[in-house]
Amino acid sequence: MKRTVFIVSALLMFCGFTQAQNKSSKDTSIKKVAVSICNCLEKNHVEKANTEEEMQQVFLQCIFDSASSVIGDVLTSGDGDAKQNGEEFGQKIALELMNSGCQPFIQMSVKLAKGNLGADDDADAKPALKSVDGIITKVEEKDFLYITVKQSTGREMILIYMDYVDGSDGWIKDAAAKLTNKTVSVSYEESEIYQPKIKDFANLKVLRKLAITK
User: Which long-range contacts link 20-24 to residues 24+ away (Cβ below 8 Å)?
Assistant: First the structure.
């Protein structure tokens, strides 16, 4: 999240309207606002935005729409410093969005971290794809879908499915049953993705193409 500066700025803009709250009501409001923001981001397909400006516009609109929907729970009077409480509230919302596994927010953060939005016409800006062939030995559903591919050399590689892949409509709803033990040809790119468990970015292999060959 430290790489997505506008996200924090947007949250602080929103939180400038809040006041201090007692802990229980604040925690409840954080969860309600985060759920509302996540639903709005999903509805507006923020992860498909082509530029940072488009992404920012959708995100800001979702923040203010969500603030209106729960304003009765968020706005209260208090004795604390409004700016300090607002900043704390904003940081907690960002963490709640990440730790709750809000996919649109996570995907948006990943795209911003990669820093190549709006560079579709620049071939040098696109991450290089790598390809391997092998047999899928394991499919796990966690925060994302993790697919383990065993190559002919015996080496196993774990790929993460987080964006739409051509042809995935045919197997995504029952991935374990439809992919396990299948011989495949896959392409992937290496990308830094935020991992809530370790509270840091990790270099993971993101699936971009998957073709069942046998």
Answer: 20/76, 20/77, 20/78, 20/79, 20/80, 20/81, 20/82, 20/85, 21/74, 21/76, 21/78, 21/85, 21/89, 22/76
Do the Cβ atoms of 20 and 76 come closer than 8 Å? yes
User: Does domain 127-212 sit in CATH 2.40.50.140?
Assistant: yes
pLDDT of 4 over the 50 cut: no
Q: Give the span between the Cα atoms of 61 and 126, in whole angstroms.
A: 29
Q: Decide: 145 and 161 in contact? Cβ < 8 Å.
A: yes
Query: In what helix (H) or strand (E) does residue 158 lie, and over which residues does it extend?
Result: strand 156-161
Within 10 Å of residue 160's Cβ, how many Cβ atoms?
18
Task: Give the start-to-end residue ranges of the domains of the chain.
Answer: 5-114, 127-212
Predicted model pTM: 0.45
Instruction: Give residue-wise pLDDT tens across range 14-49.
Output: 444 444 344 444 556 778 888 888 888 888 888 777
Q: Which residues of 125-146 are buried (b: 16+ CB within 10 A; e: fewer)?
A: eeeeeeebebbbeebeeeebbb
Q: What are the structure tokens assigned to 55, written together?
A: 């992404």
Q: Which residue has the higher pLDDT, 106 or 19?
A: 106
Highest-pLDDT range among 121-135, 174-188, 197-211? 174-188
